[in-house]
Specification:
191 residues; Jelly Rolls; four-stranded antiparallel β-sheet; six-stranded antiparallel β-sheet; single chain; 2 domains; mainly beta
Length: 191
């Protein structure tokens, strides 16, 4: 909502300003906008098992059925940002200028020494300008099980491709691996 300016007239008591009721209606609307939540938190905890990586990038899956899934701090009017059926993010309920930050908790089992893995987001899928943003790159000196948590700075809803087209979380590595995505938290800051 745009700020509502109260008409105060040209001079005191000249009857050209807003009537008292109109002025206080605008005041209440401005305060309602000011005090409405500007940050939303969406926590998607998964119960899915491991996924195998064997040389081709894989989409990381999350069913949102874990005990810690929590969307009670969602923004008004934006109940969900992730579709557990398609495993795609849907930012279309947000606005241009909003920011989205992620934190991922996952486990990787590497198969070789000096192995590198990467998690990235494909954004604007199906648009004329799709693109990718790296989320987490890890380097492992030993083969075995590694618990990780990664976070990115933010994704800016700066264009209609990012806002209105789906996004997906991807995993790749320079050697075979298995990945368990425990879940992720999405934090939205309204402009």
């Amino acid at each position: 909502m745009a700020q509502e300016i109260i008409g105060i007239g040209i001079s005191a008591n000249d009857n050209t300003g807003d009537p008292l009721r109109t002025a206080f209606t605008k005041t209440n609307d401005n305060f309602a906008e000011l005090y409405s939540p500007k940050i939303g938190i969406y926590d998607y905890d998964s119960t899915l098992g491991s996924q195998s990586f064997t040389g081709t990038a894989i989409k990381l899956l999350n069913n949102g059925l874990g005990a810690f899934t929590n969307k009670i701090y969602a923004l008004d009017g934006v109940t969900d940002l992730f579709n557990t059926t398609t495993n795609e993010f849907d930012f279309s309920g947000l606005s241009l200028g909003d920011r989205v930050a992620f934190r991922y908790d996952y486990q990787i089992t590497t198969s070789s020494v000096n192995q590198e893995s990467r998690i990235y987001l494909n954004l604007g899928i199906g648009s004329g300008s799709p693109y990718s943003i790296n989320q987490d790159t890890s380097f492992f000196k030993t083969a075995g099980v590694h618990e990780l948590s990664g976070a990115n700075s933010f994704i800016y809803m700066g264009n209609l491709e990012t806002l209105n087209f789906p996004s997906e979380l991807m995993f790749t590595s320079d050697a075979n691996a298995t990945v368990i995505l425990n879940g992720f938290v999405i934090s939205v800051t309204k402009r």
